[in-house]
Write a structure and sequence with these properties.
alpha/beta, Rossmann fold, nine-stranded mixed β-sheet, six-stranded parallel β-sheet, 19 helices, 18 strands, about 35% helix, binds adenosine-5'-diphosphate, binds alpha-D-glucopyranose
């Protein structure tokens, strides 16, 4: 049995802005079910919900700050969660990265530097918890200083750093290094310095014993300039220590047979039940109720990564096709406005919901026929897996985890029963448009469509396999 400290800036269902929370809320459970002693550590944000009140454990002093550690549990599991409680940094409403108005926290570097210091104290068993991990599993830039700081310790636990997204690196002006009072030994180009700036993610990439990312394809892509954002050289240099492990999904949260948010539960055997969810969704969104018109859905952060610009360029042409389109998301304000303009122009065809809405995300997965995910890059992506589980056929661009989890519906894959979606290559609107037209042709042939739905719903996206791969890595290091 390994003792694992799992550090993350967000964990579902306590707090979530994206897929990292889904992973942090489900991978530790899978590892615990494999018999491992795993504990999650994360900041105690004011916006945390769905958990028992934290029980006071101890106070730890780092960098002249007295920080409390509280203990709660991940709901419906035995996994302990240690909350790093420091109200001057985390006691505000808003999300882990942005304030209520959508602006990044100005002191975000201070916040996560403090978080990293506490993780180090816990990892070194200096927080009076009488528990020393064998492995510290860090996730994304917010935890990047942990492997760096631990590298300076004697008798330290092994470290693994998982990249969920290379586009977010935690870059700060060089002056922040001094202000954060970080040890001088780490300040050099072979440390956490990046062209005169402080790079949190470099701490993970340079110092962790192993690096993983969330799909095998993305592990290759980030070694190239297009996806490496200036760190492709370091990643290529460390390629022997870098691997890709595809994310699993929480099959209890995302299960059409049991999902409490949807109006009719269904399975691959009772696919007709999906129809009722479509009717309910059309009604809820104010779209004409029509069982025959294919309903397209998109859920996600409205940022460059997700290829929403491709969707926007296609929309004028798409509206002349026999279909309906619904989108749920928030992010870039100019994208939000453009989408809302389209919805006003075509109320019969397009329904846009701006905001974050978990029940609606489930209802869209259940009620839609086709799911759009034309990402420019996608380290793993979870919605294409949820979609397949719900028999909602994904249209994806061939990149990152999308390439690794969706099989294009071509004659060969139709024959051997692996076809589970529609895949296109180029990040251009014309290619997405083609893929949409291809999906309409497949959709009209009811028996072919059912076959693809059943293939998709039969795939195993559970954590078991991937959690075992993490376990093998923990054992190696
Ligand atoms: P990323 O982490 O890049 O945002 P993923 O596909 O890995 O992308 O995960 C996104 C997660 O966030 C999914 O669980 C998705 O359903 C959820 N999500 C994204 N936007 C919204 C929203 N507006 N409302 C509800 N859930 C959302
Ligand atoms: C990131 C990526 C997404 C991935 C998620 C969880 O936010 O953008 O592709 O699925 O992390 O690993």
């Amino acid at each position: 049995m390994k003792k694992i400290l799992f550090a993350s800036s967000e964990t579902h269902p306590l707090i979530k802005t994206g897929g990292l929370a889904d992973v942090a809320g489900s991978l530790p459970v899978a590892l615990s079910e494999l018999g491992q002693d795993i504990r999650i550590i994360m900041p105690n944000y004011q916006a945390i919900k769905n958990c028992e009140p934290g029980r006071f454990l101890c106070t730890v002093r780092v960098n002249n700050c007295d920080v409390n550690l509280l203990e709660t549990r991940l709901p419906d599991s035995e996994v302990p969660v240690w909350l790093v409680d420091y109200p001057p940094f985390f006691g505000f409403s808003g999300n882990p990265y942005l304030d209520d108005t959508g602006k990044p926290w100005p002191d975000i570097g201070d916040r996560f530097a403090l978080f990293c210091r506490i993780v180090v104290e816990v990892a070194m068993n200096r927080a009076y918890l009488d528990w020393k991990p064998d492995v510290v599993h860090c996730n994304d830039w917010q935890t990047g200083l942990v492997p760096a700081l631990l590298s300076l310790e004697e008798y330290r636990p092994a470290t693994l750093f998982t990249i969920h997204n290379m586009a977010y690196q935690g870059l700060f002006p060089g002056s922040a290094y001094t202000l954060l009072n970080l040890p001088g030994q780490l300040w050099h180009p072979d440390g956490v310095e990046y062209h005169g700036m402080l790079s949190f993610i470099k701490g993970g990439l340079r110092f962790a014993d192993r690096i993983t990312t969330v799909s095998p394809t993305y592990a290759q892509e980030i070694q190239k300039p297009e996806f490496g954002y200036g760190l492709e050289g370091l990643l290529a240099y460390r390629r022997d220590y870098l691997s890709g492990i595809i994310n699993g999904i929480d099959t209890t949260v995302w299960n059409p047979e049991k999902d409490a948010y949807i109006s009719q539960n269904y399975s691959a055997k009772t696919l007709t039940g999906k129809q009722q969810n479509k009717t309910a969704l059309q009604e809820q969104l104010g779209l004409p109720i029509n069982p025959d018109l294919p309903l397209f859905a998109l859920i996600g952060r409205l940022v460059d990564q997700k290829g929403i610009d491709l969707v926007l360029s296609c929309l004028p042409e798409i509206t002349s096709l026999p279909l309906q389109f619904t989108l749920l998301g928030s992010g870039d304000k100019s994208i939000e406005l453009k989408l809302q303009d389209f919805a006003r122009l075509y109320p019969e065809k397009i329904a846009i919901t701006i905001g974050y809405n978990e029940p609606l995300a489930h209802q869209m997965e259940a009620g839609a026929d086709i799911f759009l995910m034309p990402s420019r890059f996608e380290p793993c992506g979870l919605n294409q897996m949820y979609s397949q589980r719900y028999g909602t056929i994904p249209i994806v661009r061939k990149t990152g985890g999308l390439a690794d989890t969706v099989v294009d519906s071509l004659p060969e894959s139709m024959t051997n029963g692996t076809a589970s979606g529609i895949v296109f290559n180029d990040a251009v609107a014309a290619a997405l448009h083609e893929a949409i037209k291809r999906s309409l042709i497949l959709y009209t042939d009811k028996s072919t469509w059912k076959k693809i739905q059943r293939n998709a719903m039969g795939k195993d996206f559970s954590w078991l396999n991937s959690a075992s791969q993490y376990l093998a890595l923990y054992e190696e290091i």
